[in-house]
Automatic annotation (TrEMBL):
<feature type="domain" description="DDE Tnp4">
    <location>
        <begin position="156"/>
        <end position="321"/>
    </location>
</feature>
<comment type="similarity">
    <text>Belongs to the HARBI1 family.</text>
</comment>
<keyword id="KW-0378">Hydrolase</keyword>
<dbReference type="GO" id="GO:0005634">
    <property type="term" value="C:nucleus"/>
</dbReference>
<dbReference type="GO" id="GO:0046872">
    <property type="term" value="F:metal ion binding"/>
</dbReference>
<keyword id="KW-0540">Nuclease</keyword>
<dbReference type="GO" id="GO:0004518">
    <property type="term" value="F:nuclease activity"/>
</dbReference>
<keyword id="KW-0479">Metal-binding</keyword>
<dbReference type="InterPro" id="IPR045249">
    <property type="entry name" value="HARBI1-like"/>
</dbReference>
<dbReference type="GO" id="GO:0016787">
    <property type="term" value="F:hydrolase activity"/>
</dbReference>
<dbReference type="InterPro" id="IPR027806">
    <property type="entry name" value="HARBI1_dom"/>
</dbReference>
<protein>
    <recommendedName>
        <fullName>DDE Tnp4 domain-containing protein</fullName>
    </recommendedName>
</protein>
<keyword id="KW-0539">Nucleus</keyword>
<dbReference type="Pfam" id="PF13359">
    <property type="entry name" value="DDE_Tnp_4"/>
</dbReference>
Length: 361
């Protein structure tokens, strides 16, 4: 419950249609029948009697839905006007969740709920997530210690979210896979939860370039993330205080607070380090897989602007977490290599070795 109190998620369904469509279309016959024949007033009410089907429809069960509604209702409520009766927060949340769960077009969802297409398209207006503080980072590191990688703060990677080519954007969003996309850069904890996300980078950027240009990358370089102070590895005080690190693949740079595998084909101790790193870094890949499986909007090409796509990704990351709650530029360039070598040494010593690594090697 403490986590839910920290969670601030606003899913606002904007009524832009009423600002741009002639007044004679405000009460189209289809829209006028919303309260009698719309999905919210019929199908959704029937689904309340079957929790399994309710969860299949919204990807949240009834208890989770009600809990989320209590959190976001004040932020998504609208006032009635002299011309129209406002759509309730509950119905707005239903429209939002159904779009995210299916990846259907806004028009398709709009017909189902008997609202205007542009009303359904205003999925997310504001999303806010607290950044971990030093105490929270320490909890994350403790969880990763149980996965045999001490002083780890998260697994980091980038995911391309495919969108339609934005007008007059040239090759900015064109990625190496031959599609147009924005990038979700994420740090994931040991329980597959997104702890840091940076969304909206151009698809043409590499993972390293995305990190460098992101607010997260800037905070990491300026040492403003609240990362805990260096501390010795368990039972290895002779190696000295070791920094807390994020784990990444070869696409990211090696820094004092970012560990990537040793390059090339390796044997012996370096291979053990790479194996231990890969064992933990899979958390972020699994989290991306869970996200795409839960919210099928990721299986489609998003036919929206990059800004709207960014809001959609933010919303799904927050919902993903909701369902799962119960470096320093002044250092010399060789410092990162020293950190990696010390971790490698520790993993190959009796103090840091675990039984499964030798079988895998």
């Amino acid at each position: 419950m403490a986590r839910n109190r920290q969670l601030a998620l606003a899913l606002a369904l904007a009524d832009d249609e009423e600002k741009h469509v002639p007044r004679r279309l405000w009460l189209h016959n289809i829209t006028r029948g919303r309260q009698q024949q719309g999905a919210y007033h019929n199908l959704v009410q029937e689904l309340r009697f079957d929790d399994a089907r309710f969860a299949a429809y919204f990807r949240l069960n009834k208890c989770q839905f009600e809990q989320l509604l209590r959190i976001v209702a004040p932020s998504i409520a609208k006032l009635d006007t002299k011309f129209t009766q406002a759509i309730s927060p509950e119905e707005r949340l239903c429209i939002c969740l159904r779009y995210l769960a299916t990846g259907d077009s806004f028009r398709s969802v709009a017909f189902c709920f008997r609202v205007g297409a542009s009303t359904a398209a205003g999925i997310v207006n504001e999303v806010c997530q607290p950044k971990p503080d030093a105490a929270e980072w320490r909890k994350i590191a403790a969880e990763f210690s149980h996965l045999d990688f001490p002083n780890c703060l998260g697994a980091m990677d980038g995911k391309h979210v495919v969108i339609e080519a934005p007008p007059s954007s040239g090759s900015l969003y064109y990625n190496y896979k031959g599609t147009f996309s924005i990038v979700l850069l994420a740090v994931v904890d040991a329980k597959y939860r997104f702890r840091v996300v940076d969304i909206g980078a151009y698809g043409r950027n590499s993972d390293g370039g995305t990190l460098s240009a992101s607010a997260f990358g800037t905070a990491l370089r300026q040492n403003t993330l609240g990362i805990p102070a260096d501390s010795p590895l368990p039972g290895a005080e002779h190696l000295g205080p070791m920094p807390h690190v994020f784990l990444a693949d070869e696409a990211f740079p090696l820094r004092q607070n970012i560990m990537r595998p040793y390059p090339g084909h390796n044997t012996g101790e370096k291979n053990v380090f790479n194996l231990r790193l890969s064992h933990v870094r899979r958390m972020v890949e699994c989290a991306f897989g869970i996200l795409a499986s839960q919210w099928r909007v990721y299986r489609r090409v998003l036919g929206v602007s990059p800004k709207v796509a960014e809001n959609i990704v933010k919303a799904t990351c927050m919902l993903h977490n909701f369902l799962r709650w119960d470096g320093n530029p002044g250092l010399p360039g060789g410092a990162a290599h020293v950190v990696r070598d010390k971790l490698c040494q520790y993993f190959n010593s009796p103090l840091g070795s675990v039984q499964w690594q030798n079988r895998m090697v």
